[in-house]
Amino acid sequence: MIRIGTCGWSYKDWIVAFYPESMRDKRGGWLEYYGRYFPTVEIDSTYYSVPGERTIQAWIAKGKRMEDFDFSLKMHKDVTHMRILKDGERAASAAKEFEDAVVRPLAEEDLLASVLVQLSPRFKVEGDEGSLRRLEMVLDALNTDRYDYVVEFRHKSWLDSSGYDYLPGVRDLLSSKNVAVCSLDSPYFPRTDTSTADHAYIRFHGKNYDIWWKGEKQIKDHRINRYDYLYKEEELEKWVPTIKEFDSKAEKTRIYFNNHGKAKAAKNAFYLMDSLGIPHQEKEIRIKEQFTLQSFG
Prior knowledge:
Blueprint: E1 2-7, H1 30-34, E2 40-43, H2 45-48, H3 53-65, E3 70-74, H4 77-82, H5 88-108, E4 112-118, H6 130-141, E5 148-152, H7 168-177, E6 180-185, E7 199-204, E8 217-219, E9 222-224, H8 233-237, H9 240-249, E10 252-257, H10 264-275
């Protein structure tokens, strides 16, 4: 089963491109409008702050009004970008608190897809394997047998000498926990097709290599940022065999587009669904000309 969506839905620059002008001041209705076209979404806001019960209940209420919809969540940064760098026990405790407060309520309502543990680019393999042990402590604290967890590595030290697969100890740990490796299309990490679980997870970040590490740049009325990238059809078609291979091994394959600038993620998600023969409600996405830094000299 392949489910395709985008990373987030609440973007002001999706007005006109995706959301109708009449919904500009009706953000409370954006998620359910999004749900007419996509069966899943990745919630990125949980990385920045742990949502309160009121927010979680709002997601549940809206999710249950949509047919066959689910949410993936990003683990809070306190776990992935702070505590795990130095203290495995504290990271494990915070991860468990997140699971109890956010993951479990959605799962109990059958609205949970996956939980993404996106590690800091500063979290790297150490000579004494201390970092791998801290990651293991976090995973030990979680119900990986009950919920679908995914780890996204962002430092190349986790890869073996080929640069395209993970160290044996990493693969063994994730396989023993049925935790998937996030496969990426991004400017900052090599593409890997490693399978370590009965579920798979793919994220598309775009290909803005020239500005990924340079931050945003304001030029006239156009904000150029790392996620403002429209994939060409041939770029996505190259992924189709890999996705089908993942799907042949996994019970669930979840794919999210993070190139959210000006609704490009939605347009690319539709194209990939078409390429894979996945039916969806048709919608025109109005994409303006794609800008790059080179366009402005």
